[in-house]
Every structure is written in C-alpha cells, then in structure tokens.
Specification:
By secondary structure, the protein is an alpha+beta fold. It has four helices and three strands; from the N terminus they run αβααββα. A three-stranded antiparallel sheet has the order 1-3-2. It is globular, with a radius of gyration of 15 Å.
C-alpha cells in the first residue's frame, strides 16, 4: 500500500468508478474499496464525493442501479455499467492515457 494518499484530480473519479465497475456490479462501499485496491491505496474515496458522483453518472446514463443485500445482510444499492458507461470508460481511458503521456514528457523535458 502507498504510504501517502493523493487528492483526486478533476475528472479522475469518474474514470476510477467506471473502471471499478468494469468487471462486476458493486455497491457504494464496494466501489470505494475497489478504487483503493486498484490504486494500491493511493486514492481513498469518501462517501461525500462518491455518492454524488454515482448519482450524476446514473443521470448521465453511464450506470444503472438495483437494490439488493450486501454481504452484511444490509440493504444496498448495486451499480453496474451500461453500454454508454462502457463507451465512456473507453473514452476516459484514452483521455487519461494522453494526459499521462503528456505529463511524463513534461517531466522529462529539460
């Protein structure tokens, strides 16, 4: 695990949520845990950031949700990607690839 947490850059949260849901549907806490896992602890998403983003992304048509039971036998809202969400993940992945390459080039410049 990373020793430092990093603040999410603008637009990063959407991509991380989409990526976390690319393999399976998850409830909110599961999404937050998955993001922490795939970023090796670099990003920890707080509920105050996560849930507004989930609601907005559902409004955009990238996610759909259903109510179910969590592993703790609690009522939980499960999210999954729609076709539009899969397309958005591709778009976000390409965009962040370009950004990462540009930043790497800038850091290498003399």
């Amino acid at each position: 695990m990373a020793s430092e947490q990093t603040s999410l850059l603008q637009g990063t949260l959407d991509m991380l949520i989409l990526k976390s849901l690319s393999a399976a549907e998850l409830h909110g806490l599961g999404i937050a845990r998955r993001i922490e896992q795939i970023t090796q602890g670099t990003f920890q998403v707080k509920p105050g950031s996560l849930f507004p983003a989930l609601y907005r992304m559902e409004e955009e048509g990238w996610l759909t949700s259903t109510w179910g039971e969590s592993e703790n036998n609690r009522r939980a809202k499960y999210y999954r990607l729609t076709k539009a969400g899969h397309r958005q993940l591709e778009t976000e992945t390409e965009r962040w690839g370009r950004i990462a390459l540009a930043i790497a080039r800038a850091l290498e410049a003399s």
